[in-house]
């Protein structure tokens, strides 16, 4: 009997999770909400937000360009050619060649692959751990108080400096960059999840579940979690973008992805020496970095519109 | 007012405590024996043991943690055995250029971002608003060192208007000091402009929809007075919060930008410490920046009470 009611509740929750209008939709947004009620699928919601749609498409293009193309075309970011040293962009090297005659285009794409790998892994690791920390610290206020103070302490360190110090202790490798940045970004995710969970805990459905005798694990992971997913996904998208920026800054001062592996940050550092002779060494990795982060940020803004119609402009 | 400040100071204690513990474990993270690194490769075991004892590394972990805290409370951020200098004296000799860039950048960002944010809120939904928001999204996507490099590219090879590297002390030539600061400050400020302009916009939109603005409109006040005197005064608190919260990132940004413009500040100290594998120095700088961050936030919280009488009232 109890489980039947529980199931019903679960279904109601599933529905509200699926069309992504959390129970907090305001009445004074009625015209917009009204429009959205006809569109039940996530796809329709994404289509209704140009930022999410085009941001998503461009992000896929960038991922394809960095992860698939260099391998399919069998590009070599390490091949040097003495005759091509500091060669300006031409048909032979579309983005020119660097100070040891390596193809900048290949290095930009491979650099993008490692940036996306770092950004994506950090988003997943800090996303999952941040969700657990945030949800439990909302559910158990006493542990939560101390967990949040630890988060405050972590957030008092600027991300870049904390990353540098961690890499100092752990040693410089791409895996350690991912580990260091995941630790840096857990508090950001945890804070968002915590406040979303806390506002859900005041909802009626939670008190109903409590009086039905549902276990706290069940309430937290099968009911509240579904309502927290929207703000969580948005935050994780921004962590993705920020992690790419911080990785680039760390590589720029020599504590990120170790040389000679290309990364946008260390390519930009190398470009500084040749800034008077070779503009292409600065411009192409720089534009690739800014464009990627810009597209992810636009995508994140779009997701925010999709999940939260109140924020639509 | 004093009671409010005291309460706020007290609430910073657990955070400082946790920052201390985190930094302690960070400093014990490194693989290998720091004493052996300092003693050099051809030191005998007894020499290494002597250094361990001198550094207190032979004590149990809780004792080390305790000593660490006592040292922190005395303003001792550690000792670089590689430079044979205390971290605080190294910071003291490098802090001025970094602070110059950060503070000049902060002033620049406030001077640009607040009017931009108010403009966007006033013209909400129009093309101007979209332009400001697009600009903000674009600048949040550009790390400060990239802006610095692009500015350098532009000014070094095309314009020749401003100096592109180095730092001149204000006692030497004040005008040169300012001229050398312009490009670094503009580089660190772009991100800050985006953050502050966004916050100003959203908090102004809230303020502009309130009753007192309707009253101000009804009694025929000029728009500028409605916006600045009535609107912004009420919208200032969230703006102040982001300014305080992002000041730490601004210092971190200055540290990276110094590498671009060859400025002999904390950034140079950090980069050289990385090259020397001097992690005591890096951790000391990290703690120093974290403590500066905590205090800047304390000061912003106190400023709330100065700006907003309601907060002052609550504490009594």
TrEMBL record, chain A:
Residues 1-33 are annotated as: Disordered. InterPro entries: BP-dependent_transpt_permease, MetI-like, MetI-like_sf. Residues 116-300 form the ABC transmembrane type-1 domain. One of its GO terms (cellular component) is plasma membrane. CDD domains: TM_PBP2. Signal peptide: none annotated. PROSITE patterns: ABC_TM1. Residues 1-13 have a biased composition (Polar residues). Pfam families: BPD_transp_1 (PF00528). Keywords: Cell membrane, Membrane, Transmembrane, Transmembrane helix, Transport. Its main location: membrane. It is found in: Cell membrane. Belongs to the binding-protein-dependent transport system permease family. This is ABC transporter permease.
From TrEMBL, chain B:
The keyword Ubl conjugation does not apply. Belongs to the binding-protein-dependent transport system permease family. InterPro entries: BPD_transp_1_N (IPR045621), MetI-like (IPR000515), MetI-like_sf (IPR035906). It is found in: Cell membrane. One of its GO terms (biological process) is transmembrane transport. It is a multi-pass membrane protein. GO terms for cellular component: plasma membrane. The keyword Transmembrane helix applies. It comes from Bifidobacterium tibiigranuli. The chain crosses the membrane at residues 6-26, 95-119, 131-157, 177-197, 285-307. PANTHER family: DIPEPTIDE TRANSPORT SYSTEM PERMEASE PROTEIN DPPB-RELATED. This is ABC transporter permease. Keywords: Cell membrane, Membrane, Transmembrane, Transmembrane helix, Transport. Residues 95-304 form the ABC transmembrane type-1 domain.
